[in-house]
Amino acid sequence: PWFAYLPEEIQPSELRVARAKAANNPCPSRTISQCGEVADAPSGSLQPPCLEDFPISGLVWSLSQQCQGCRLVQEALECALSDHVRETIASELRGHVVEACKCPHANHVLQKLILLLPSSSSQFIIDELIVGQVAQIARHKYGCRIVQRLVEQCHPNQVQELVASLLTDIPGLSSHPYGNYVVQNLLQYGAPEHRHAVVSTLGSEVRGLASDSYGCAVLAMALAHAAREDQVALARALLREPGLLPGMACMRHGHAATRRVLEILEGEEREDARRRLVAEADRLGLSRYGRLIVDGLEARRLPGSGGGGRHHAPPT
Hints:
disordered C terminus, mainly alpha, elongated, single chain
């Protein structure tokens, strides 16, 4: 196993114990990195995998909190031959989910569990997060990753209560350095009714969100992934606010949202948006991202460009 190559003096005590258990493994054909999948093992000699075959039994939570140890636990999960073994390993994390979400190492173990286990086996993670206040975990540097994996991997009905907690705080999460990723994830992977609820809230908070860098990133995601009718409603909400589009166009994520507004709106509404941006061309030209919008507007005015880009004179 990989930890056998670590110098003794830098091995955590739990790793030394794990190494000793691996050396005394009662099943010589199975180690932590092989777990029953040994090419030269005699046919029919392999037994059904059980936790005792892994040198981490009883050490899962302790190892998960360490840099090297969390890799060992992830390796055990990947190499296990059955979900039963993975569930047995996961059982040692019960009661530690909130703490694991905030740990720079253990959060990777939780993510691996969510990815590898049947979604029903992740229910204990959801239950402990709900009790531990989901919105706070969604704002955490590492915890936001766990919430995202659950939304991606679990059935919408299974995360209904978890998502409902998030929906009560969409404006705050959207303008948070880590919470905004959870809202963007909901817009990409959430159930249609959840995405609709998020966009409805965003539409009523566009003034504050459009002036915030993280909020602009969420708006751009909504304008790209929401249902068509929700995209149009959000684009119109942005257009209704005086001076909002030019200000948003000067921001890193805001300029992407501004482009989407111009693509989504049609007819007179698109021309109205365009006129507002053209009127602020000098201001936009002072910004790196604003210049991208100005270049796009100029390209659309050139004869025969069809909005596809700027035409250049042929080389002489």
